[in-house]
Amino acid sequence: MDLAVRQLAEKQHGLFTTGQVHLVGSSRKAVRHALAAHEIIRLTRGLYVLADHYPSTTVERHLQLARGALLLVPDGVLSHWTALLAHGIPVVTVPPEVRLRRPVSSECLGPRGGRRGVRRVLTGHLGRSGGQWGAWIVVDLGHFFVPVSQ
């Protein structure tokens, strides 16, 4: 793996995006080579982790994917079970999806203020279950800031 990419990933819990790879001057070919050499693991489209930073437990993998989701969706806010886990609150079962909320843009609002086309799902990697990838990043667009009345 390219030294510049490795140093960047080390600062981000072992995570990096393809956009960041290009910013530090590396290439897709270097990413493909690192994947083939098992130096990195693809978590979802555009998101990778250094193989030596891949966690062993489901909760740790969920939190790592959440950190990566925030790299892909910088204006996102963790929500649902993902927010509980990020705050150290235990849950009975770790869900297969990482949940984020992000502000809705005017382009996503219909004529009556309803939402359209507001969910983006990225397949991810929390581990294999029966040969199937078992994780998603779900990005819900919506108003999630509650105004405080004075």
From TrEMBL:
Superkingdom, taxonomy of origin: Bacteria
Native source organism of the sequence: Ornithinimicrobium cryptoxanthini
Name used for this protein in its record: Type IV toxin-antitoxin system AbiEi family antitoxin domain-containing protein
Domain named AbiEi antitoxin N-terminal: residues: 5-51
